[in-house]
Amino acid sequence: METLRGGSGDSGTSRSPARFIGRRCADYPERLTHLHRPPVGVWVRGPVAIASDRMIGIVGTRRATEYGRRMAHRLAFDLAGLGWTIVSGLARGIDAAAHRGALASGGETIAVLGCGVHRVYPRSNRDLFAEVAERGLLVSEYPPDTRPAKFNFPQRNRIIAALSRAVVVVQAGPRSGALITAGLALELGREVLAVPGPVDQSVSRGVHQLLRDGAAVAESAGDVLRQLGEPEVAGAEEPQGSLFDGDRPASGAGTAEPADRLRAGLSTGPAAVEDLARAADLAVPEALATLCRMELGGVVRSLPGYRFELVRRC
Asked: Does pTM surpass 0.85?
């Protein structure tokens, strides 16, 4: 492993050394060799080692809503607290929330950059960049002072996918870079999960397409670990599969299927997701996932304001 200490950049942080890990180095990440064209090496900066088999990617749109940021933070907090390293891209929105969640738990996080590890991008994440450099790991295949360039970011997405055992997408538009990461993960044989969202928001369209294509629903850390075949954790919520899996009764809600309970809640007219979830004794993400499948089946239709109504047939 070689060390670089100099170089001009705009990190605005104390210059911890950048280290180069080449393909012939013993600590070159084995998972990167799964790529068709692995990087010849990666530059790293920070105290965290690249774990061999306990990394989970959490990615999503830069234009995240409060709901999306909350879900990314919660998933990362819980998974990192259980000893998993959270991998993301240090972008605004979902990426930043995932890194912050991992750090808040006292766990580990890796930020894969589309620039050098001595360049802050975006500048709005300056403080987060410094914290990851101090407590996590910055990773890039580009030399430390490389400026960000548009074509670098799809390249860095393949590294996120390769390092991760599973990739969780939290909010993504139909042309989001997070979908590129998910596609790369599938090509590499990684698990792909998605967090369902309100059906009338553009940031939900990409994740709902993943769910239609068979991605598993991620409501909690327990869902992610079960998808990986890992032992269930204490206090985990009931598992959720993809939208095409059969409905599962919710704990403590009797034997009625979730779709039946939601249909009953809509029998008197349109209702908001939160009200339907409460009446059916379901978590809001589970209610949304079931309603999305019901909409695909022509049973319900979505209305503005996170509301749904039954489709009346003559």
From this structure: no
